[in-house]
Amino acid sequence: VNSRSGPQQGHLLITQFRRLLNPIQVWDLGNGGPEKVLKSFSVLSRFQILVCGGDGTVSWIISALEKMELKRWPPIGILPLGTGNDLARIHGWGGGYNNESLLYMLRQLSEAYVSMLDLWELDITSMTKKGKQKKEIKAFLNYLGVGVDAQAALQVHLLRESKPKLFFSRLINKCHYAIAGGEEALKSSCANLSRQITLVADGIEVPLPPDSQGIIFLNIDSYSGGVPMWSKGLKPRKKRVRRYSESDFLHSSLTRNDSTEDLTELESTRELTACDLPSSCQDGLLDVVSIRGTFHLGQIRVGLSNAQLICQCREATVTLKKKIAVQIDGEPWRQNPSTLRIVRKPERATMLNRSAEDSGGVEMEVTKLLNWANEREVIDRNQYATMMEEFSRRTEHKKRQKRKTNGFSFIG
Description:
alpha+beta; six-stranded antiparallel beta sheet; 13 helices; 14 strands; 23% strand
C-alpha cells in the first residue's frame, strides 16, 4: 500500500487490511521500498500481489520484480489510488477507489484472470557540453509523450514540487492539469514540432502531420485518466500508389527514382501506417498518435475531437533537434537535443484482470487449470508461458468484440 497515494486513503486501507489479513501480508511503501517484502514471499511457489496506489506505484513494484529475476512472475492486481489510474482502468479495476468493501475487492482478486503487459525501455543518447556522448536508460509502462502534452505535464510537475499542498485530491489535480493546458494553448510553444523532431519507426522514417504539436507512443489505450486515444483516433489518409505492370519493367519505363527498392519501401510504409490493428498491451506494438495542441487534447478528452493515428511499430527512434519536453507515464522533463530509442524489453509483466460478472468465472477456471498443470508438471514452464500468453490474447480479443457489440468504448 502506498500510504502517500490518494487523499488519506492509503493510511485508512493499511489499517483495514491489517484487520482482514495477516499483518505480515500488508506492507506500507511509505516505510520503505518493496524489495524486502517481495523477496520474503518469493520463496513461495505461487503468490499474488495487490498494489494499492497509482500507476507510478505499479511501475515501482514491476521494476523491483524485474531486478529479482524470478523464474515466474507473480500476477499483479491494482486497487487504484492515483490520479490517472490508466493501468487499473484497462485491467478492469476502475478509475479510482470509492470506499468499496475490501472483502468484495479481495474476492474479486481471487476470481481474476491473468494477462500479459509489455514493458518498454527508452534509451537516451545525447552530447555533453564537453562533446562526450552521454547515455541514459528509462522504463515506461503506459505511454511516452514528446511535445505539448509533456510541456503541460511539466508545468504541473514544477508546481507540485514547489507547492505540494495544492494537490490534495484527484479532482483538484485534474484542475491543475486543465489550467496548465490552457496556458500552453496560448503559448503554443510546440507549434513547429514536425520540423524540430524526426520519427523513424521500424527503420522507416514516418512524416509527422504539419500541424502536429505532440506525438504520443501508447502501450495501452488509456491516456491521462481513461482517454481511448487509439480506438477513437482518425486513420491517416491513404495515398494512391501507382501500380506497375510487367510491361513497364520490360520497356524500362521506370526512372531511377522508381526502382523496385523504392516500391518495396513504399509498400512497407503503407503497411506501417495502415493503423488497422486494435490496441493491445501484449502484442509487442506501440501505437503512435499525434495531437495538435492542448486545446485539441482537451477536445479529445470530452469526445469532441480525435487524435491523428500515425503508425504502429515494434521499435522507434525520435531525433530531437532542439530542447523539447518529454514525459513517460506522467514523469516530465526538458530533454536537450538527443536521440530517443524505444524498444520492448524481453520480459513481460503478469497482470490480474477483473473478471466480468457475466463471464461465469470461465477465465478464472482456465487460469487455475494452467497453474495446476504447471505445478503437477503436466506441462513445463515454457509451455505454461506460451499457453498463458495465448489464453490472455484470446480473452482480450473476446472482450474487445463484446465492447464493440455493446457500443462501449470508454475505459473505467
